[in-house]
Design goal:
single chain, alpha+beta, 22% helix
């Protein structure tokens, strides 16, 4: 909140249906982040998904679209060496995107949600990268840490900010 000069929004987000559809609990720090900021973009770059049933920012709807298109068995050429998450299996759950075609996922792997690594690709790094850090730390480092290569956007946007999404995009 400090680096973006954001006043906490405390958006009302009921995660029950989302977590029920996924068949698991999401990281608590991520849910707090989503409730604090609401829907929108960090530095007009990084969009996080949350609870917006049927909307552009809805995590469960986005995941369901990915899983519908993914093969149920065998290799998944779009996400190899990973797979899109299916209940009871290890796989990727999308939690955000960037304006330069970066994808941000958790690797739900049977561990406690707070221990899921972040898996990302896009922009200048087409190969998958796996990072062991929380979602809030990752977002902070993308928008504020110039040493966080190849993910940092500080050269493009030196002063981090948060722009809430217009109500019509929900």
């Amino acid at each position: 909140m400090e680096i973006t000069h954001w006043e906490p929004r405390r958006a009302d987000m009921s995660w029950g249906e989302t977590e029920e559809r996924l068949g698991l609990s999401l990281p608590e720090d991520y849910k707090r982040l989503a409730a604090t900021f609401g829907r929108g973009l960090f530095s007009d770059f990084l969009q996080i998904l949350s609870v917006a049933p049927g909307g552009a920012f809805d995590l469960a709807t986005t995941w369901q679209g990915f899983s519908t298109d993914a093969p149920a068995e065998g290799d998944d050429p779009l996400y190899a060496p990973y797979r899109i998450y299916r209940p009871g299996r290890t796989g990727l759950i999308p939690w955000g995107f960037s304006q330069i075609e970066c994808e941000y996922h958790w690797l739900a792997n049977g561990k406690v949600a707070e221990e899921w690594p972040i898996v990302t690709r896009g922009g200048g790094y087409r190969e998958w990268r796996q990072l062991n850090m929380s979602t809030p730390e990752f977002i902070y480092r993308v928008v504020a840490d110039q040493e966080f290569e190849p993910f940092s956007i500080t050269a493009l946007v030196p002063e981090p900010f948060f722009a809430p999404a217009p109500e019509t995009t929900f």
